[in-house]
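Project channel, design review

CF: Before we commit to the Actinokineospora xionganensis constructs, I'd like one complete example in the thread so the newer folks can see what an input/output pair looks like. Taking Enterobactin transporter EntS.
RD: sounds good, go ahead.
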Amino acid sequence: MRLGQLVVDVTPARVSRDFRLLLICRTVVLLGAGFIAVAAPVQVYRLTESSLQVGLISLTLGMTMLLGFIAGGVLADRMDRRKLILISSVTVVLAFTAFAVNAAVPSAHELLFIYLIVIVGAGVEGIGQTALAAVTPALVAPEHLAAGSGLIVVTSQLGLIAGPALGGVIIAGAGLPGAYAAAAAAVLISTVLLATLPALPPGAADATDDTEVEAEREGWFVSIAEGFRFVRHDKLIRAVLIIDLCATGFGVPQTLFPQLVAEVFHGGPEMIGLLAAAPAVGALLASVSSGWTSRVRRSGRALIISVLLMGAAYVGFGLSPHLVPAMIFLAIIGGVDSVSEILRRALLMRHTPDHLQGRVNSLWLAQASTSYSLGSTTSGFAAGLFGPAVAIVGAGALCISGVAALASTSPELRDATLTVDEDTVDPAVSVAAVSGSTEKDPGAEVSLG
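CF: and here is what came back for Enterobactin transporter EntS:
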C-alpha cells in the first residue's frame, strides 16, 4: 500500500456539502464539550473533595442520557432527524448557560443544582446524539463509510484537543462560569449551522413482512423491541457492541484526573487539562493516518488488536509516576481508541439497514454511555479504597481479558470486513447516500491475516 493511502480519505467531505457541515458542527460542539469535561469534575471535586462524588455525577448523566438514547432511537426512525438534532442543541445551550449561572452564584444547593441541570440536559442531548449518529449513512456512500468515520474522528479530535486544554486555561483565568459560558456559546454556533441542513427523514423499511408496520401501529415498546431483536440475532453487530463495552466500561475515566493531579502529579487545573487533551492528540495523529481502515481486509481483527493495545496502554498509564510518561500512554490510548472507533462505527453503519439506524445507534450510544458511567463510579470507588493507580491498572487488565474472551468465541467479528464490492452493496444501507460519491477509491487492500 502506498504512503498516500495512509492519509485520511477526504472524499466524503469533498462530495457532500451536508456532511462537511456535520463535521464542522461536531468540531464546534466537542470544543465546548472539552470545556465541560474539565469544568464539571473540577467544580464537583472542589465542592466535595471526593472522586466518588465526581463519579456519581457521571453516573447520573449516563443514566439520564440512556433514557434519551432509547427515546431518540425510536424518534429518529419515525420523524425528521434534523428536527431532533435542533431541539437537542437548543436545550444543551440552555443547560450550559444554567451551569454558568450556578457556578457564578454560590449557594448551599450548588451540588443539587448540578444534578438537576445534568438530568434535564443529558436526556434531551441523548435524543440529539442518536439522531446525529443516524444521519451519517444518509450523507455518505457505503464504500466511503470507513472514510467518513475517519473524518468524524479527525474533526472530533480537533475539538477535543483544544477543548480540554483551553478549558483548563479558562478556569484558571475566568473561573468555572467562564468555561461554562464558552461551552454554551460553542453549542449555540453549532445550532445555527445545523439549522441550514435539509430535512433528514428516516429511510423506509425494506422488510417483506409486516413487522415494521406493526411496530408503528403498536407503539414505542414494539419499536424498541424490534431494535433489540435485530441486535440479538445479528452476531456481528452484537460482537461490535460487546467489544465497545470492553473499551468503554473498563477504560480510564477522566473523573480520576483531579485525584491523580492532586495526589500523584501535584498540579492544578492546567495539568488536568493537559491530561484530558493527551488522548485527543494521539487520536488525531491516528485518525489523520487512518486511510488504511477503508482498505483493510480483516476489519474485525484490526478492531480486536486495537482494543487489546488500548488495555495494555491503560496499564502503562496507571503505573506512570510522572506527568510526561502518563501523557504518552494517554496519547497511545487515544490513538488506538481512535482506530477502534472508526472501525466500530463503520461496521455498525455498514451492516445496519437505514430504517433501524436510529434504534441500533441508540443501543450503541446507550451502552457506551452507561458502561462508561458505571466504570467511572466503580473506578472512583476503587480509587478511594486503593488509590487511582491501582484502579486504572485493574481497568486495563479487565479490558484485555474481556477482549481476549470475545475474540476467541466470535468468528463473525474476527472475519468481519468493510471492503465493498459494487455488485454486493446493501441497498438498505445505501438508500440515503444522497450526496456521496459512488466511485470506489482504487488501492491495494491491507490484510491482517
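RD: helpful, thanks. Residues 205-217, 422-449 have pLDDT under 50 and may be disordered.
CF: The two ends are 16 Å apart (CA to CA).
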